[in-house]
Amino acid sequence: GKEQYQLVLEATPFYAESGGQVGDKGILQFGDEKIAVTDTKKENDLIIHFAEQIPADLLGEVKAIVNAINRKAITVHHSATHLMHAALRKILGTHVAQKGSLVNKEHLRFDFSHFAKMTDEEIANVEKLVNEKIRENIPVVIKSMPKDDALALGAMALFGEKYGDVVRVVIMDEKYSVELCGGTHVGATGELGLFKIT
């Protein structure tokens, strides 16, 4: 029951909701006027900033400021999703495939296919493996490459996602986790601190 405005900029540092990762929040500054961005989404190849007001003057330069604390918490959970996906495939088998996820600042939720309920031991083993990878402090490498090269590298493409000819690949140890992904990620796995399944 409230009005919202959609603002589109020529370029933006804001991440639009995609692949389970929620959109950024922050501020758009028009001169001295600050407009709060409550969400960011992508529609028709445009990144749209949602706000509850529009500035008095739309001309001139805009300073776009992402809420860094919010973004960092989301980023940590997104990188944890990749580590957990790889751990599930190692513990339960390579038939495990992501079927959905939610990555926000509070937690991550990961939906996947498997033929049985996980046992307490399997859950503990997944936790243990992810925490080992966190302690290894593996550098997170992000590369853009042709889709065929990425798949040859062993990158996992998610069912239902649309990919162009050139894709973004997120690597957390080439022998552990290689995924096609457009989301935000940490610089090294050690930034995750601790991983706990609840």
Tell me what you see in this structure.
With 198 residues, the chain is an alpha+beta fold. Helix content is 24%, strand content 29%. The chain is built from three helices and ten strands, in the order βββββαββαβαββ. The chain has helices at 68-92, 120-135, 147-152; strands spanning 5-8, 26-30, 33-43, 46-51, 63-66, 98-103, 108-112, 141-146, 166-172, 177-180. The protein has a five-stranded antiparallel sheet. The chain has a three-stranded antiparallel sheet with strand order 8-9-10. The chain has a two-stranded antiparallel sheet with strand order 6-7. The longest helix has 25 residues, at 68-92. The mean pLDDT is 93.
Secondary-structure topology with pairs:
Layout: E1 5-8, E2 26-30, E3 33-43, E4 46-51, E5 63-66, H1 68-92, E6 98-103, E7 108-112, H2 120-135, E8 141-146, H3 147-152, E9 166-172, E10 177-180
Antiparallel strand pairs: 1-4, 2-3, 2-5, 3-4, 6-7, 8-9, 9-10
